[in-house]
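Dear support,

I submitted the protein below through the web form. The confirmation email said the job was done, but the results page showed an empty box. After a refresh the structure appeared. I'm attaching both so you can tell me whether what I see now is the final result or a partial one.
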Amino acid sequence: MKRIIPFLIILGLTVSTTQAQRLTETDDELDKKVLALSLSGPQMAILEMKRELNLSEEQLKQVELLHEERYQLMSEAELKQEEPIERQRTYREIQIQLDKVMAGILNEKQLKQFLELEGRQHVNMLTGNEEE
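What the results page shows now:
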């Protein structure tokens, strides 16, 4: 009996591992389409935001300008800041400014979705108590 239990555990793990290896990715076509596009960072972010947040044309124009400025500031910070801690502090300041401006552009529902897209659902932006 003592030998059967470890054997069954090993058998179960082997079967599940074998089954997992048989699974294939089905988004090869999507990968090819994405790789065929030549978009910069701001353009990719804008494309996703437009689709996910249902931005109006006016919002889209404002967000495009904001993201271009953001990426420019981040690029400059990367070149100027040699110290990683200082660079991260600068990136955070840029992000806080972006959040404050985005709060003025987006409605409450869009702002919540934006934060989810950014992976920062729990940020308390407007009180100054940003937490990540």
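Response: this is the final, complete result; the empty box was a page-load delay. The radius of gyration is 22 Å.
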